[in-house]
Write a structure and sequence with these properties.
Layout lengths: L1 E3 L4 H5 L3 E2 L8 E5 L23 E2 L2 E2 L4 E2 L8 E19 L10 E7 L14 E8 L5 E5 L5 E10 L3 E2 L1 E8 L2 E3 L4 E4 L8 E5 L23 E2 L10 E19 L10 E7 L15 E8 L5 E5 L7 E9 L3 E2 L1 E8 L17 E3 L9 E2 L11 E6 L2 H4 L3 E4 L16 E4 L4 E4 L16 E9 L9 E3 L2 E4 L5 E5 L16 E7 L13 E6 L3 E4 L4 E2 L3 E2 L4 E9 L9 E4 L8 E4 L2
Parallel strand pairs: 14-25, 27-36, 27-42
Antiparallel strand pairs: 1-10, 2-13, 3-7, 4-5, 6-12, 7-10, 7-11, 7-13, 8-9, 8-11, 15-24, 15-26, 16-18, 17-23, 18-21, 18-22, 18-24, 19-20, 19-22, 28-37, 29-30, 31-40, 32-42, 33-41, 34-37, 34-40, 35-36, 35-38, 35-39
Length: 573
């Protein structure tokens, strides 16, 4: 054991995980006494505030754990860690406890499977022998890494108060049994770590890989405002294991006035934990610079992912806040890579897909597969769809519109409505002699049928070279004669850019899942699959300019069934 000066925290615990944090699911399961202040405060993320001068029925208020006086033995608190892991040290904080701080503490640990240990459990073993504490101070202690544990017991001699108790270590990675499962390789429960950031002025980088979407801006990564032209900030994520990547999610939840303007992603394969020595040319661009929006989950298909990577760098322009980064992929086969020891000091935990930390998806491709390109069907957002067209939808929070500085939003209908003005404009470039006219049509669509693996082949693409084209879902029209319209359901949007040969560029093929509350507008000339609905019949209104009478100027069609391997859409849920 060694007591560490506060200024050495970054090099001692900077790349470890706070295993006890409530953000990971840490919790108090038993306590000997909490008369003056409840033990749950120990695990809170935020630093302990001063409550000086505030009193309750039992006396002065404290943000921490405080027990009665005159204990003849000691007080104790049993904590379940957010996940199993190896413990490397502690931050024991007595902030604002002065004259009533705990004089001494020790820490015990246990790995308890399918049971909750009690105070007298015979399997507790000591990992921090009795040490002295002072008033109103943080105390850092580093210990030799333990074996894997999931409970710790904080012993306080004889009584008193502690503000915060943080247990630092490395997660036992949770990996799926099946090698072809796609899951979040960057997630903290997969052994992911944030190993380096350019700036974390308002929110630390380690928040990026936490479970869930958090509760406010305080549990994301946020950098200070930049004033220099061309500025950018970045964070480097070490994946839980080397893997073949599929898609990523950039979540800006709660960041509405301070989300980044745009971001890009790069990846590398490095032996070191912190790839500081990797030159810029050693990083591969896997997501070109892409616009971001406020308060939403952006999902992006990744490029250049035909080889395994160990690290991902997210760069934001020019600054701002991101809540979470998810990097989905499948592990590199273990016979060609054995990098798990660089992630954790213990063996990864292999689990069935029923207990994975993120929704599992069957992999899109294996070495022996004859499948063509695989398209993960991603949630439709305005930013993800921007290279191909526009998304038409209302927003519950008007501050969450894609372009908050430019979108005009007004009240309407005597205060009963909100109007989002001109989210898309009609376009037409037909020759004047074509006599094309704008109009609204309705497509009544039936559900597509997936194959036995839950995938769907893209067999045809079309484009409209002289007009853009909008589709607005109208619910299940078959029900409208007898009942109210059922506005539920989803539909699939498959798009591609035009290639140099004036045919679809299949490298740019993307798939999105749209909800019944989202309309889309295909830009003029964008290749797309005819409308495909997923959850039962759906009517879609189509707004377009056309000549009609099956005129070839209206629509060009390319049949892909002659391709050696048809592109396959893979659904994520």
């Amino acid at each position: 054991m060694a007591q560490i000066p506060l200024e050495q925290f970054p090099e001692t615990f900077g790349t470890t995980i706070e295993l006890s944090s409530v953000a990971l699911g840490g919790s108090i399961v038993a306590v000997s006494d909490e008369f003056f202040a409840e033990a749950f405060h120990l695990l809170l993320v935020e630093p302990a505030p001063s409550l000086k001068g505030q009193f309750g029925p039992k006396g002065a208020l404290y943000s921490g754990w405080e027990t009665r006086r005159h204990n003849p033995t000691y007080d104790w608190c049993i904590i379940k860690l957010g996940t199993s892991g190896t413990v490397h040290g502690f931050d024991i904080d007595t902030s604002h406890f002065n004259g009533n701080e705990a004089p001494q503490v020790s820490v015990q640990a246990v790995q308890a499977v399918d049971r909750v240990p009690n105070e007298a459990d015979s399997e507790w073993f000591e990992i921090l022998s009795k040490v002295n504490l002072g008033p109103n101070s943080r105390h850092l202690f580093a210990i030799p890494p333990t074996t894997g544990v999931n409970y710790v017991k904080l012993n306080m001699f004889p009584d008193g108060g502690i503000a915060r108790f943080r247990v630092y270590g490395l997660v036992t990675p949770v990996f799926p049994q099946e090698p072809d499962i796609v899951f979040d390789l960057a997630h903290v429960f997969s052994g992911g770590r944030v190993v380096l950031t350019s700036d974390q002025h308002f929110g630390v980088g380690s928040n990026l890989i936490l479970p869930g979407r958090g509760k406010d801006m305080g549990d994301g990564w946020e950098t200070k405002r930049s004033r220099q032209p061309g500025h950018k900030d970045w964070a480097i994520l070490k994946l839980g294991d080397a893997g073949f990547l599929s898609h990523a999610e950039i979540d800006t939840a709660h960041f509405m006035g301070n989300f980044p303007n745009s971001c890009d992603l790069h990846a590398t394969n490095a032996e070191s934990l912190v790839p500081a020595d990797v030159p810029e040319e050693g990083w591969t661009l896997i997501l070109p610079r892409t616009k971001l929006g406020p308060h939403r989950q952006h999902q992006f298909q990744l490029e250049n992912v035909d080889k395994p990577y160990t690290h991902v760098r997210v760069t934001i322009y020019p600054d701002g806040g991101i809540k979470r980064v998810r990097v989905f992929g499948r592990r590199q086969p273990t016979d060609t890579s054995d990098k798990s020891e660089t992630i954790s000091s213990q063996e990864p935990h292999i689990v069935s897909t029923d207990t994975l930390i993120s929704e599992p998806q069957k992999s899109t491709k294996t070495a022996a597969s004859d499948d063509g390109p695989i398209l993960p069907a991603l949630a439709l957002t305005a930013e993800g769809f921007a290279p191909f067209g526009q998304v038409i939808q209302g927003y519950a929070d008007v501050n969450a519109v894609p372009k908050p500085r430019k979108t005009r939003i007004t009240g309407a209908n005597q205060g009963t409505a909100v109007k989002f003005h001109k989210l898309a404009l009609l376009e037409s470039s037909y020759p004047p002699a074509a006599n094309a006219t704008s109009g609204i049509s309705v497509y009544r669509c039936q559900s597509i049928t997936l194959d036995s693996r839950g995938k769907w082949a893209v067999k045809v693409l079309e484009r409209h070279p002289f007009t853009n084209q909008a589709f607005i879902p109208m619910g299940d029209g078959a029900k409208t004669n007898d009942s109210l319209v059922d506005a539920g359901g989803r539909y699939l949007v498959v798009v591609a850019k035009n290639g140099e040969d004036d045919k679809p560029d299949l490298k740019t093929l993307r798939a999105f899942v749209a909800s019944a509350s989202q309309g889309i507008v295909y830009n003029t000339g964008i290749w797309h699959h005819p409308m495909a609905v997923l959850d039962g019949p759906m009517d879609l209104a189509c707004v377009e300019t056309q000549i009609g009478d099956d005129n070839s100027l209206d629509c060009e069609i390319v049949n892909l069934e002659g391709e050696k391997n048809l592109p396959l859409v893979r659904f994520l849920d």
